[in-house]
Amino acid sequence: MATSTENARASSAAASAASVPLKGAALAMGTIALSLATFMNVLDTSIANVSIPAMSGDLGVSPDQGTWVITSFGVANAISLPLTGWLTQRYGQVKLFTASIVLFVIASFLCGLAPSLGWLVVFRVIQGLVAGPMIPVSQSLLLSSYPKEKAGTALAMWAITTLVAPIVGPLLGGWITDNIAWPWIFYINIPVGIAAAAVTWMIYKPRETPSLKLPIDAVGLGLLVLWVGALQVLLDKGKDLDWFNSGQIVTLAIVAVVGLSVFVVWELTEAHPVVDLRLFARRNFWTSTLAMSLAYGTFFGNVVLLPLWLQQYMGYTATLAGMVLAPVGILAILLTPVVGKNMHRIDPRLLATGAFVIFAAVLLMRSHFNTSADFATLLVPTVIQGAAMAIFFIPLVTLSLSGLAPSQIPAASGLFNFSRITLGSFGTSIATTMWDRRASFHHAQLAERVTQFDPTSAQAFAGMQAGGMSPQQSYEAVNRIIDQQAYMLSANDIFYVSAVLFVLLIGVVWLARPVKSAGSAAAATGAH
């Protein structure tokens, strides 16, 4: 009995110590360490995008196969997110966060050493799994470091860090790929991670949260891994295996559908579910989660597609492709603190509508790109897109958390982000698959017009051959031009359909009920 009383007192003391705000140098160093870890995590979702062609070439695979480097990280990250609450209670926030950073550094080192795509994907899966708890736990530790009245300021600083990372990611990834070697996009995590882990442990170890021995829903977790993994492999391999003409793809589809069905039934009847699906009974939660997931999947698919097109068919280096993507964060960084401060005054559905309208306009602009587009033409939509990002995350998270009890928020945040990240990975697979399919369609249509009986074609062939090309060389040159045009038209198709989807998602947002009090802007800002 005495032992139980002592344990209870120790837990109470630990909880009390963890909630006392930090001051002075400890507060500054703690904030920097948490922000660095978050920066490193978010950076790894975008730094590889512009390096895919270089990685693919070195590892002897196609750029489409190379996108597994992105999707494998995203899916693994999404799967581990719902476990954050359980892991925090089981091991304590500080131990979990520090261990996540250390394991992330080790996985990054192994990614850089990977001798093949298969091994690189394995190490990226490990990296994604250990990265899952880092962002939610960093938010929690940061909030405990500041007085309650400064929580909004703390999370605004944290959110800006997560917005800077996508700007730096493509630029840094492109520069490293062009000037050093792609493995260094992973090696740069090592010094950052070691510094963040050391400072975090030094400052936050005395503030460790109490730990409890809790049961884990092993069956639910296994089913989650099964159906998400099967669906992702289906999307990634479908194009190469001719979709449902392949027995392997049919098998994966059956596993995904059956796994999801059993998962839903199990989680709704399990006493301690790994994912609380009952949250979907709330209108504002399911509408905002659906809108966010589909919008993020569409957005991320286009973010991956643009640099692939620029590098493969527009002659851009990885650095230049990164420079086209980087300015997206400029307006986002400037506007996010303003949006956070004024969330309580504006209906979040209006802000989300504004974001979707801007996204649709940006994608519509991109759907008119052609092979003569100069750098400035490519840059304009990217800069405008930053305004949409500033008013995209905060309102939808505010809607998703509205009306929830404090005890439900960790589970709701985990499920919301799980859906977002999973759809982001699916969006990448779908965008690259449809890009190839539509390019084949356009190539066939364009090639039909190139015959020896067509005066324009005959004149072009004659001109090339008069310049010293053999007939075979002239045919190959024309085929390369057709390829370039076909992939441009295919990208335009995807940009246009994505724009239409964003317009349709406005209707989903307005299915949500009005939020009487938009809630904490700080909580919303933490959604990034």
Would you mind describing this structure in some detail?
With 528 residues, the chain is mostly helical. It has four domains: 208 residues, MFS general substrate transporter like domains (Growth Hormone, Chain: A); 54 residues; 199 residues, Growth Hormone, Chain: A (Up-down Bundle), CATH 1.20.1250.20; 47 residues, no CATH class. 77% of the residues lie in helices and 0% in strands. The protein has 24 helices and no strands. Helix 15 packs parallel to helix 21.
Briefly summarize what is shown:
This protein is an all-alpha fold. The protein has 24 helices and no strands. The chain has four domains: 1-208, Up-down Bundle (Growth Hormone, Chain: A); 218-271; 275-436 and 492-528, MFS general substrate transporter like domains (Growth Hormone, Chain: A), CATH 1.20.1250; 441-487, no CATH class.
Topology:
Blueprint: H1 2-19, H2 24-46, H3 52-59, H4 63-66, H5 68-80, H6 84-91, H7 93-113, H8 117-131, H9 134-145, H10 151-179, H11 184-187, H12 189-204, H13 218-237, H14 247-269, H15 283-313, H16 318-325, H17 328-342, H18 348-366, H19 375-390, H20 393-401, H21 409-448, H22 455-466, H23 471-509, H24 521-525
Short key terms for the protein model shown above:
528 residues; mainly alpha; Growth Hormone, Chain: A; 4 domains; 0% strand; globular; disordered N terminus
Structural class of the secondary elements?
Answer: mainly alpha
Query: Helices and strands, in N-to-C order?
Result: HHHHHHHHHHHHHHHHHHHHHHHH
Mean pLDDT: 81
CATH superfamily of the largest domain, called what?
MFS general substrate transporter like domains
Number of domains: 4
Poorly predicted ranges (pLDDT <50, ≥5 residues)?
1-15, 517-528
Q: How many helices in DSSP terms?
A: 24
Any idea of the CATH class of the largest domain? Mainly Alpha
Oligomer: single chain
Give a quick account of the main beta sheet: strands, pairing sense, barrel closure. none
Write the CATH architecture name of the largest domain: Up-down Bundle
CATH topology of the largest domain: Growth Hormone, Chain: A
Shape: globular
Distance between the termini: 45 Å
Our estimate of the beta-strand percent is under 5%
| Helix percentage range | over 70%
- Calculate Rg over CA atoms: 24 Å
Report the count of strand segments: 0
